[in-house]
Design goal:
Number of helices: 19
Order of helices and strands: HHHHHHHHHHHHHHHHHHH
Structural class: mainly alpha
Shape: globular
Number of strands: 0
Strand content: under 5%
Radius of gyration: 20 Å
Helix content: over 70%
Length: about 400
């Protein structure tokens, strides 16, 4: 499938995108509003970064305890309940005078709930689209995320000049409710992809199986670590340039959109696998120079150029699906999403700590240097095949291919 027209005519794909768009709009506007609220109250880069990316840390717990539900629960039900839970939590965050400990508790609970979302959403998209449409469909999904971030952060920055952060959080609540409504009305009820009840043992058993293959381990690390370190640096935009943070986030989303457009639509399939490492290096390189404190205009340009490198995730997701049996696709994608956002939360915590000890600009450059080092190390490891690539690690993808 190489046509956007054919893709958008696929039954249920459009409402699937619209429900995600409303959820993503809520995340961008609400995240910026909450980070601004916390920074104004505390003046702390660390607390500001944690308030924006803190729920992602909690997804580590979700990956350990809840992730088996990605394939063992009805997808429409899960994707309806998640935004309703976020709406309730965001309404609590909008209460005036809410103490910081209560904010952190709400963020923890939201992160636990969100840990199911990536896997359920990814597995459902894998069901909605034909096999040859996954990469194009995923690129459109990523581009939509980029568009929503561009408009959401730009609108969020503008709204914060006109409204209080508390009012912006109430608007966020409305977007979450809209997402739940579109999901309930636009998607059909489907049974779970796998039999059995979600449980801790099932989650751990399948996670262990997914992690047991060296090729998959390297893909997961490539999806999680370089990305998480750079996004951790991105979490310092508010403290790095308070007046321009919304613009930096919006232009970063524009770069991400451009990268997904080019890689998903224009790059030939045979060439895509070769781009994973160059794109991950591009993701970090522009931030290496932030220690020099470039002007706001150059900082915005650097954010846009670097974010083109997020398209590496599209290449690596395609590789992950080729290495995973169909009946584990939901949990495999859920583990990817949960690990990615959890590492982004860890990155935000690390970047915020470095910013407290040095400065936001220095911390961003240090995070970029660490991301570059990890990408180079993973490239070297990928060039040295392990024994399981010749045995068990490659048997499962062949069986998955035969079933398809």
């Amino acid at each position: 499938m190489r046509s956007y027209r054919t893709l958008l005519r696929t039954p249920e794909y459009t409402p699937f995108l619209l429900s995600f768009a409303a959820h993503a709009a809520a995340q961008t506007i609400g995240g910026l509003a909450l980070a601004t609220l916390v920074y104004r109250a505390t003046g702390s880069p660390l607390l500001s970064a944690v308030s924006m990316f803190g729920p992602q840390l909690a997804q580590l717990l979700g990956a350990a305890f809840l992730l088996s539900g990605a394939d063992r629960l009805p997808p429409r039900t899960v994707l309806t309940v998640i935004p309703l839970a976020f709406a309730a939590g965001t309404a609590v965050l909008a209460l005036p005078g809410l103490p910081l400990w209560a904010v952190l508790v709400v963020l923890l609970l939201q992160g636990l709930v969100a840990s199911l979302g990536g896997g359920v959403r990814g597995g459902l998209m894998n069901e909605i689209l034909p096999k040859d449409g996954y990469v194009l469909g995923r690129s459109v999904f990523n581009m939509l995320w980029g568009i929503v971030q561009i408009t959401g952060f730009a609108a969020g920055g503008a709204l914060l000049t006109l409204l209080t952060p508390h009012s912006c959080l109430l608007l966020t609540t409305a977007f979450y409710l809209l997402s739940a409504l579109v999901t309930r009305l636009g998607l059909t009820a489907r049974p779970p992809r796998s039999a059995g009840r979600p449980s801790l043992s099932a989650t751990w058993r399948t996670n262990a199986l997914l992690w047991s293959s060296r090729p998959r381990r390297l893909v997961y690390l490539g999806l999680w670590v370089p990305n998480g370190l750079v996004v951790g640096g991105d979490s310092l935009y508010v403290s790095y340039a308070p007046a321009a943070a919304g613009t930096m986030y919006a232009c970063g989303a524009l770069g991400m959109f451009a990268g997904d457009l080019v890689v998903g639509r224009l790059v030939p399939p045979a060439l895509r696998p070769r781009l994973a490492t160059p794109l991950r290096l591009l993701l970090a390189a522009p931030y290496l120079f932030f220690v020099l404190r470039p002007s706001v205009a150059l900082s915005v340009l650097a954010a846009a150029v670097a974010s083109v490198g997020f398209a590496a995730s599209l290449v690596l997701q395609e590789r992950l699906m080729a290495l995973t049996p169909d009946d584990l696709a939901g949990q495999a994608l859920g583990l990817h999403t949960t690990g990615m956002v959890a590492l982004q939360g860890v990155g935000a915590l690390l970047a915020g700590t470095l910013a407290q000890l040095t400065s936001p600009a220095t911390a961003m450059s240090l995070m970029a240097a660490a991301s570059t080092a990890v990408t180079v190390a993973l490239f070297v490891l990928e060039r040295r095949p392990g024994p399981d690539e010749v045995t068990a690690g490659l048997r499962e993808p062949r069986r998955a291919h035969e079933r398809s």
